[in-house]
Write a structure and sequence with these properties.
globular; 4-stranded antiparallel β-sheet; about 0% helix
Amino acid sequence: QVQLVESGGGLVQAGHSLRLSCAASGRTFGDYTMGWFRQGSGKEREFVATIGRSGDYSYYADSVKDRFTISRDNAKNILYLQMNSLKPEDTAVYFCAAGGWRKESEYLYWGQGTQVTISS
């Protein structure tokens, strides 16, 4: 069992940056691939980014590529999502998840989400 808690969300203006964190506890964090997903109001949850167990490879949705960076600190059991050049369409609840790759159905554990709101 892995427990995941996101933090770092908030309200910022378009063009600004935010860094989300996801603190993990329970089983060994480094055993799991990790990912970020998001769900806008009235929309389905969508894939944002994923990272390998040691952080040596990652993959991004086209909508966030070159603006967002996923990273992890296995010593601290924390997953990050650095979000730059934010746009209003990035507004969503952001979730971290453990154990999968690009598909939501692959993931075993989920956090409760953190709200990110981008004003124009």
